[in-house]
Structure formats: C-alpha cells, structure tokens
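Worked example 3 (structure in, sequence out).
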C-alpha cells in the first residue's frame, strides 16, 4: 500500500500558519485538519483568529467551530477523532495538511499520547481546595517547582492543565514533561513538519497589530456575548479572560487590551521554546516569496514516501 503523508504546519500565534496551510492544501488538492484547540469552539471566531469564511471556502477545513463552548473535549478525544478523520481523508488523498499552534494537540496526532494515569480523586480534591483558597498563582508556584520544563510550555492561566500535571507528578514521582516526551504510538503515515519563522520583534509587532484588528472586527461584542460562559474552560483563554475583567470593572478597556497583547506574546514565547527543541521542522521565513514556496514544495517532495 502506498504510504500516506501528513504535512504539519506549525509556529507561534500570529505568524501566518493559516495562509500557508491553505496554499499547501490548494497545491496538493487536499484538505486541512486543524489542531488549534481554541478554534474547535463556535462563537469564538474573532478572538481565536479562526479562518475567515473566504479562507474556509478556499480549502476544506475540519475541526473548526465544531463544538459548543459548553462541550467538554479532551486532548485524548481529539487524538481519536483526528486519527479517524485522517483515515477517512487518506482514502481519498495521498497528502493531508495539519495546522495549528496547540503543541500537545499536534503531538497527539503525529506521535500519540502517553499512557498517563487517570485523575486521582484525593489529589484533585486537595488541588481544588488550594485553587479555591490560594488562587491559580499557588498552583503555578507548585508546578514551577515540581517541573520547570513543563511550566515553561504550559498555558499557566488554564487551571485544569496545572491540576492535571501536578496530579500526575504526585502519582508517579516523575516530571510531567518527561512522561509526555515519550512517544507511545508509531503512526502508519509519514509526517513532514513545516514552520514559519520571523525575528522576535517582527512577530511581537504582528501579534500587537492582530489584537488591534480583532478589536476593530468586534472582539469586545463577541466576548460580551460569551460572558455568561466565562467559568467554562473554553473561555479561560487569552483574549476573553482579560475582557471579562473589563466587564467586571476590575480593569479599564485600554489596560485589558494591553494585557491581551502581553499574554499573546507570552504564549508565542512558550510556543517558540517548544518548537526550538525539535530538529525535524523545515522553516520558511515570514513573507516568503513564490520562489521560497516552490523550494518548500521541492523539499516536501524529497521527503514524501511513495
């Protein structure tokens, strides 16, 4: 049987992954699977920079706006769903595109998740008490001490991620970062990872400008419409949590927007740290030319398995 190929487009937030994924999908006449965990949820299109209607029309996308913000959706469920979708697509295509900056979600698809223990009830109870009494800062402090490597990568504003990592560390007496680094499954497809890179200052400037554009497009109104769901995990994310503080009267609007920019830059920094550790990513420079794209196609063809 002919070996199938998955092209995974990675990189920090705001770098232009969507455009490159669409260009590749059009070139290979194929479809796109998103591994951006924030874009799975409907009603968050502006704040998560989901592909526009025009972009979605250029190439078929999967896992964009397929869930309600009220749905619980784990990384394990995503791995199962994404692999099932890949099997379907590989019936029709030799090559499929994967795109997104959610590092662990990409890892789940291309390598597989580890056989980590289920949540321990006593640990969870203890951690929830800490969270309620001392806040998320205390959980951040605990994880940073137990596993500084994972703390440097995790979305530390997401208390569920912190709770999960600490629980696993307490159960196993091993760092969470070490346990998730071990690949469990070999995949029956070939993966080619493509990244986009830019100077740090240029990336941060793009992020700042993108936040301003989001505000112009109606992010404030979008967040207002989601305020009743602010306690849900899907909304505990950059772009929304800051505006909820504005709605609550804790911050003024200018400060909330500046915090969105700052937290988006911090997230990009964590993504860059993660991708820098990989030695299998072929990079294009931001603002790549047609000649650069042609060179990328040449690279991909050299690394595709027949």
């Amino acid at each position: 049987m002919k070996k199938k190929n998955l092209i995974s487009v990675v990189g920090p937030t705001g770098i232009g992954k969507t455009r490159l994924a669409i260009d590749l999908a059009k070139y290979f006449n194929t479809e796109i699977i998103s591994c951006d965990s924030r874009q799975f949820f409907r009603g968050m299109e502006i704040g998560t920079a989901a592909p526009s209607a025009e972009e979605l029309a250029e190439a078929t996308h999967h896992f964009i706006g397929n869930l309600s913000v009220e749905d619980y959706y784990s990384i394990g469920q995503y791995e199962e769903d994404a692999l099932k979708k890949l099997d379907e697509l590989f019936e029709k295509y030799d090559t499929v595109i994967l795109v997104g900056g959610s590092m662990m979600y990409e890892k789940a698809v291309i390598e597989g998740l580890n056989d980590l223990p289920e949540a321990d009830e006593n640990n969870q109870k203890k951690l929830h008490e800490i969270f309620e009494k001392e806040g998320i800062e205390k959980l951040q402090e605990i994880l940073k001490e137990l596993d500084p490597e994972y703390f440097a990568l995790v979305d530390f504003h997401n208390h569920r991620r912190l709770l999960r990592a600490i629980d696993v560390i307490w159960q196993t007496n091993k760092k969470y970062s070490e346990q998730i680094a071990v690949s469990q499954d070999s995949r029956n497809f070939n993966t080619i990872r493509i990244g986009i890179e830019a100077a740090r200052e240029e990336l941060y400037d793009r992020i700042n400008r993108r936040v301003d554009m989001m505000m112009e497009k109606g992010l404030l109104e979008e967040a207002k419409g989601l305020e009743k769901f602010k306690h849900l995990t899907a909304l505990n994310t950059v772009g929304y949590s800051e505006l909820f503080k504005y709605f609550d009267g804790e911050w003024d609007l200018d400060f909330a927007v500046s915090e969105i920019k700052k937290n988006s830059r911090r997230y990009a920094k964590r993504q860059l740290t993660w991708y820098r550790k990989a030695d299998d990513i072929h990079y294009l420079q931001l603002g790549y030319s047609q000649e650069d794209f042609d060179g990328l196609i040449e690279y991909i063809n050299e690394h595709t398995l027949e």
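Notes: The CA atoms of residues 51 and 57 lie 10 Å apart. The mean pLDDT is 93.
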